[in-house]
UniProtKB/TrEMBL annotation, chains A, B:
GO MF annotation list: hydrolase activity, acting on carbon-nitrogen (but not peptide) bonds
CDD domains, alphabetized: YtcJ_like
Keyword annotations of the record: Signal
Pfam entry (one): Amidohydro_3
The protein's name: Amidohydrolase 3 domain-containing protein
Domain called Amidohydrolase: residue spans: 87-558
Length: 570, 570
């Protein structure tokens, strides 16, 4: 253990204290922190307790097993001789946050790829594409993501010619911000053998410019180009996983539900686990039945690597996304009246897929954005619940646009609504354009969900959105975007209290993954995953929550990241 | 721990001893054996020491870490208070044997499938196929293996009609004993859409009966039917792995090199490891580059699960097998002068495959049966060794028929000859028919290999042959088959001493897998994997070695199997 890795909690004290601390440090050098009881004292701690009530504490005692041993309140007698005593200096402590819906490898790849998510116009994007190509001369393909023609106010999809104007010599393939459309240059279409005669597969669409493909491919049609992209090398996946974990820890995420793990992703996670490089806890939902059965076999895996990895179920898809008009709606799109989205499966098909997973006790999580897709799943679950009894925790991912008459059906079967508050802030204008305000009564309807006793799990859908959970918390309590729009919030009756929002990213997300006995709450016996943050999210003005800075991130009773020093090697 | 799981070493003693033992048993019930030192006393122990010299011992002290702590000889002072003391009653102890080339899942599947390896005629095979079909009405396909038209003295390959005569209503697909040919009935060919117009892929051959496929498919052509066979369910793979381990332990194998692990096999191994159900040690060589890179990524995995699983390298193929005339020869087959076998790759291709693995420090093991295939690999390794320096341990699997002028080339680059003594006993008649005696001067040439200082690793190629390593030891010292043919041995100058043969299945096989620091020898610090067997293989008449019975099999200082009780749950 090197000096720079010592807890920063010791920092900023006087001389005498330094000497005392030095003795403690000497002890630390003799044994790793996790092998002894650690008292973190003098914090302003918050956690939801077993009954879901927000409680406060002033000190946390962590056992040698990396689990919480005791919460202490002001005046409580401290243990006589904890092996280590750290001074929290009055900072705010909360449980490590859980992202209930993210894409772990995707986040790492995004950080390593061309990122267009901050571009405000097509021209800005073109400048950035050109600069990236110049800075990265070796890769055979330039791959990126993050564009959003809505944000650009382009009034149309971009085209291959828009990229050709800046990069012509190499294939370029750029996914839309929601991952539901791809934008290719001419070289990419040539490499993928796309011609005017190419046909979109079911569930997909090729945008046309006259008689030829324009360069944009929607949903299932993305695979026409995507399959020509050279797959990342295993080494690149390992880097992406490391990068992703670093980002998560820095944002205050200690656990994540990986929504769509393929065999290659899983291999990278296992390599990281085998090499003691898993630093966050990953609850994996396989990308369809094939990897699920291939990897996990006859049932969910146990928690592996000291509670850092588990494959518990499957991710399925019922429809596409709203931005690319792939979301499956009960009525046509207002801004494209001939379309009503893409239903990926017949009722029988989706039921059979869900049933195959459920029969081996796998948890089932299904993507559904549009009101029609959600209705299909509600019907499927109502039917399946008659066969598969017990505590199944069927999950609907996104549960974005619900017909108000359908919301009560979530509660009746205790179906988990796995929602991403930031989507509301990103989407509200587009949602109004796509569907009109009057059809959005059940859109991003967090408060109505809770009123209907629907178990709510919150996440970010990173890298579609920033993984920063404080953005999600802020949106959940304000219904305003980063620019404060619309002032007072969009459909403000759906705002949550901070306590409700906090539950979504802690106990709610843990419950959604059958992990409430270990994650999401700082109580004796639960894992000591916690954050020290720079402000009290329960008392600052709601808009300030977004800018919360994580100071330290602890996983299993050991510090995994700190602001001043970055990642802390285990 | 239940009574029936207690060490059988206590069995068969007088009353007073029983009382004393009962006290010891009570202690055992309080703590698992591996958590304390165990002295196994009063054995006739043999092991090769660090210098490869056979040494004897009378007692073995095993540490709490499952490793050997001390070997004690007659008269050596015993430790004052070992936690457990077991009486070996004078039985013979040897290190757990290592199969340097087996197919772990294949062995389990074989045990669960139709097995024709004991049939002596086509008629016997037909009776067995019919009986299996009657006993197993549910599987959609009947799959099996083990037929050998040579052993049947059929003078031809069997045909689809031969199966149709007994099973017509379901597809039947039966692999030849060497895995290099498959035999289908008409329903299987129909399911696989085989017609008179079907073409064999490169490296394969469709046997014809007049203008139509006869039902037998050689090497690469097997895939034409094989791809239509429904893949085993993960659950079935788990059963196969459990079955395979049970068979290995019962035969005295505690470790195995799995020669050709695919992604599904690896998943089953990981599931077993995750659930604490890995009972033997598996050193995995991936079935080609794709699973290698997908699973292991940028280099060999560490030893996982307390030293029970590691992916260290890749298995590649240079040619087919002799029985199906797929072995690639320098001159035409004597019994089919228009054929000289199937070379699977050009010189450049095989070199590139080997190079890709070696560049990430993976070990490379390549199948080569015929003299031309071996020559190709020797040339490739000579060239690659200039780039990939250091301790690479290139392996040639089988190294079966070598041009005598090529043998010295193995020694010069310390290329490991990974050979299976039982193949000699199974093949010698066929080898003479295929090539004529005068071209076999370097065939199954174990003694010549050793004279040329070639590192030798022995195995069985199970399930092509029985996994029983005592069969291999017996053949290695006699060059006679199970029936004692030919008396005095075939090419008897290639016989080995028992010490040399024993090295092949212990230290040699360990060295071939970079595992000599942990496996193959009972020395302080090495893993306490050992057997108690019913005879002294170093003193009984060589032919009696074949019938050696394993009494107990210990892995990592804990009993894993015993004859009277079968598998011992960890």
């Amino acid at each position: 253990m090197k000096n720079r890795e010592l807890p920063s909690l010791f920092a900023g004290r006087g001389r005498g204290w330094v000497r005392a601390a030095t003795a403690a440090l000497a002890a630390l050098l003799l044994a790793p922190a996790a092998s002894a009881d650690t008292l973190v004292d003098n914090v302003k701690g918050y956690t939801l307790n077993e009954r879901g009530v927000l409680v406060t504490f002033e000190a946390l005692l962590v056992g040698t097993d990396g689990r919480v041993k005791q919460l202490l309140r002001k005046g409580d007698r401290r243990p006589d001789r904890p092996d280590y005593r750290l001074d929290g200096r009055g900072r705010v402590m909360i449980p490590g946050l859980i992202d209930g819906h993210g894409h772990v490898l995707g986040l790492g790849f995004q950080a390593m790829q061309l990122d267009l998510s901050d571009t405000r116009s097509l021209e800005e994007a073109q400048v950035k594409i050109a600069a990236f190509a110049a800075a990265n001369p070796s890769p055979r393909w330039i791959v990126g993501r993050g564009w959003n023609q809505e944000r650009w106010n382009l009034g149309r999809f971009p085209t291959a010619a828009d990229i050709d104007a800046v990069v012509r010599d190499r294939p370029v393939w750029l996914e839309r911000i929601d991952g539901h459309a791809g934008w290719a240059n001419s070289a990419a279409m040539e490499a993928a053998k796309i011609t005017a005669a190419s046909k979109a597969p079911t569930g997909g669409k090729i945008e046309m410019a006259g008689k030829a493909p324009s360069g944009v491919f929607i949903d299932a049609a993305m695979e026409l180009v995507g399959k020509a992209v050279p797959p990342p090398l295993p080494r690149t996946r390992d880097e992406a996983l490391a990068k992703s974990q670093e980002i998560m820890l820095s944002q205050g995420l200690t656990s994540v539900a990986d929504m769509g793990t393929n065999v290659e992703d899983w291999s990278a996670m296992r390599r990281a686990g085998d090499a003691n490089r898993l630093r966050v806890r990953i609850l994996s939902y396989a990308m369809g039945l094939d990897p699920l059965l291939s990897i996990a076999g006859a049932g969910p895996t146990p928690w592996l690597y000291d509670g850092r990895l588990r494959m518990i179920g499957v991710k399925l898809y019922s429809d596409g996304a709203l931005g690319s008009r792939g979301a499956w709606l009960k009525a046509p799109y207002q801004d494209s009246p001939k379309e009503s989205g893409l239903g990926f499966n017949s009722d029988a098909e989706i039921r059979n897929l869900m049933s195959r997973a459920a029969m081996d006790n796998f948890q089932v999580a299904v993507h559904a954005i549009g009101d029609k897709a959600n209705e299909q799943l509600l019907g499927a679950i109502e039917e399946l619940a008659e066969t598969y009894k017990g505590d199944r925790r069927w999950r609907i991912e996104h549960a974005q646009i619900i017909d108000p008459t359908d919301i009560a059906r979530f509660g009746r079967n205790s179906i988990i609504a796995s929602m991403q508050p930031v989507h509301e802030a990103s989407d509200w204008r587009m949602a109004e354009a796509r569907m009109g305000r009057e059809r959005l009564g059940g859109a991003y309807a967090w408060a109505t969900m809770l009123q209907n006793k629907v178990p709510l799990a919150f996440g970010s859908d990173f890298p579609v959105e920033s993984p920063n959970p404080f953005h999600g918390l802020a949106v959940a309590v304000t219904r305003e975007d980063a620019e404060g729009q619309p002032p007072g919030g969009w459909m403000p009756e759906q705002k949550l209290t901070m306590e409700q929002a906090f539950a979504g990213f802690t106990t709610g997300a843990a419950f959604a993954g059958f992990a409430e006995e270990r994650l999401g709450s700082l109580q004796p016996g639960r894992l000591a995953d916690f954050l020290l943050i720079d402000r009290d999210i329960f008392t600052v003005p709601p808009r300030d929550v977004r800018d919360t800075q994580v100071l330290e991130t602890w996983v299993g009773g050991r510090k995994a990241w700190e602001r001043s020093k970055g990642a802390v090697t285990r």
